[in-house]
Design goal:
Elements lengths: L1 H4 L22 H23 L7 E5 L5 H10 L4 E6 L12 E4 L13 E7 L8 H11 E12 L14 H19 L6 H11 L3 E8 L5 H20 L5 H12 L10 E7 L3
Parallel strand pairs: 1-2, 1-4, 2-3, 4-5
Antiparallel strand pairs: 5-7, 6-7
Helix pairs in contact: 2-3, 2-7, 5-7, 5-8, 7-8
Amino acid sequence: MSASRDAVDPVTGSGPDHRYLLDNARTEAGERFTWLAELFDDVTRGHAGRLGLRAGWRCWDVGAGGPGVPEALAAAVGPTGHVLATDIDPAWLDPRGGYEVRRHDVVADPPPQPGTFDLVHARLVLVHLPDRARALATMVAALRPGGWLLVEDADPELQPLACLDEAGPAQRRANRLRRAVRELMTRRGADMRFGRTLPGALRAAGLVDVAAAGCFPVGGVACDRLEAATVRMVRAELLAAGLADDVEIDAHLTAVDAGQLDLTLAPLISAWGRRPG
């Protein structure tokens, strides 16, 4: 939260490094968005539909990243509705995709059009932010009375493995590298336990009718491709931190490309709540 953002290392005299590890500017970001959409867009659409998403709604997709969710929201609300998709780096969003694209920092910037949105959504955003409470308050402030907030975030400590069955050296290596990536994320300020706290966080933010569900994909092409893109994306950081070496990373990517691993992900916790009134 904001306190950790301002903490100073007593040895180096500098603050913690809160640069986003999975930067949109990287080439692999587009691959990650493709496979995250394959894995989770149906989950997001299902929850939004159960909350009443329909023609005429005004929606804000926070930290949208790729175009999948904004396009789905735009199709659901139709020409009488409006979808705003924001990101600190909106390069992967399509300004001709039937939704509005805007550069926006949910921590630093005020809410766009406060008190007007029927649905505000964020997926795999808050877990990476140092000041999650401020971001959550910004999203709640954007809701109209009776509007819904849908937040979806991972909980890597709830299920930390890449391979549930450590059947051999390739699976054990995959789990070592997953631990290394989690260590990098922790050093950058991510909260590995954040997903499980979402229902309480939504209630603390003043929302009512709060509930949650989890999604836990195991195996398949999408998990494999997401893993390969993620490891390639953070390879330089893993090497610089001494958390892995080139031989280990190359062997892991070879095993992934060969389809030898039944890879899985941390559970995605989806939580929703309604602004009173």
